[in-house]
Amino acid sequence: METQDTPPVVLIGPMGSGKTTVAKHLAQRLGAGFVDTDDLFVERHGVVADYFAAHGEAAFRDEEEAVIADALARRDLGVISLGGGAVIRSANRDLIKQHGYVVFLDVAEDQALQRLGEGADRPVLAGDPAGNWSRIRQARQAYYTDSAHRVVDTSGLDVEAVATKIIEGY
Ligand code: S3P
Questions:
Q1: Which of 15, 23, 90, 134 has the most neighbouring CB atoms within 10 Å?
Q2: In this predicted structure, what is the pLDDT of residue 118?
Q3: What is the mean pLDDT of each run of 10 residues along the chain (170 residues)?
Q4: Is the CB of 84 under 6 A from ligand 1?
């Protein structure tokens, strides 16, 4: 695959939808470079939960936006997975739709919560992981749908099957 000419696959979706796992697997199958924007954030600013506690969510979203812009400007990446809240900013939504092949990984609530466990490293879930997850998911649903070129329902699918579905539509 020529990452120079082909838009990168950009994975969006709620926390626990398997974005990072699928992205790694997909990148391997495509023989392409991969990055997760949460990992890039951590490289630059340290642990997300600590950053939230020290600087608040607005500062996190500013830095997240910068990280996403940098990732999309790179030419060595075939797959990019985004933090679940990236779509709340219109600048991010516009950028990913313009420069990527955007895939929304849809996920059932129980499956996501099972993956997330106590959600300790997700500050937006703090206090009430299940209640917060479903409230946040509801609030972002239209953003996920509107930002995506493709929606993949991951219910009952393993990582390989999800990657195959993405490749089929790519
Ligand atoms: C967030 C999702 C997290 C991370 C941060 C905020 C969100 O990424 O960016 O904790 O607001 O949905 P994952 O979707 O990879 O868990």
A1: 23
A2: 75
A3: 73 97 97 97 97 97 98 96 98 97 97 85 92 97 97 95 95
A4: yes
The domain segmentation of the chain, as residue ranges, is 9-169
Q: Please say whether the beta carbons of 140 and 86 come within 8 A.
A: no
Q: 133 C-alpha to center of ligand 1: Å?
A: 11
Listed residue (17, 65, 11) closest to 36, CA to CA: 11
pLDDT (0 to 100) of residue 37: 98
Whole-number Å distance between alpha carbons of 23 and 60: 23
pLDDT confidence of residue 120 = 67
DSSP of 29-71, one letter per residue?
Answer: HHT--EEEHHHHHHHHH--HHHHHHHH-HHHHHHHHHHHHHHH
Query: Is the predicted ipTM greater than 0.85, yes or no?
Result: yes
Edge-to-edge strand list for the sheet holding 79-81: 34-36, 79-81, 9-12, 101-106, 150-153
Q: What is the CATH number of domain 9-169?
A: 3.40.50.300
> Distance between the two ends of the chain, CA-based, in angstroms?
11
What per-residue confidence (pLDDT) applies to 3? 45
